[in-house]
Amino acid sequence: MVKLANPLYTEWILEAIQKVKKQKQRPSEERICHAVCASHGLDKKTVSEQLELSVQDGSILKVTNKGLASYKDPDNPGRFSCVKPGTVPKSVKGSRGACNELRNVDWNKLLRRAIEGLQEPNGSSLKNIEKYLRSQNDLASIFNNPAFQQRLRLGAKRAVNNGRLLKDGPQYRVNYGSLESKGAPKYSSTFPASLPPVSLLPHEKDQV
Q: Is the distance from CB of 115 to CB of 160 less than 8 angstroms?
């Protein structure tokens, strides 16, 4: 049985990668471990193990350049460096290739399509979402991919984090408020859509 990375730890590692990149530094294993340990209190050994498992199941990309290994988010890889032959173990190449085939999939659209198609009033579980997507013939090339289930779970977690989906226990619902405000300034969502009328004080009426 192939051991898979814990999706929660994978998400923490992806957050650490973005954090390190924002600091204009190379997302090395040491920097990633330090960031995860500092943010979530996970020990370095566990982070290293989960990082390697995430690479093996395709949730994270490992790129080697000039003998130095860096880690990237498959959905936001940025500038790619050439991966030298032999840097990817043979047992991993299959899963890595499978993950690369899903790199351009818009998981937000697939999740919304499934939830709207299921029409469950209280939201849909990830299991039902997966069943629905597997029933769609036009998605055969996606759900037949070995990395489909892992990437679907990761896509759902990201959709919740960026506000596209709302999660209530195991149930997911589309956040239509987020979709309507797409393209609007970020600060607009922090204020109510309509404000109550403002009444002037007596001395302000005189000024007007």
A: no
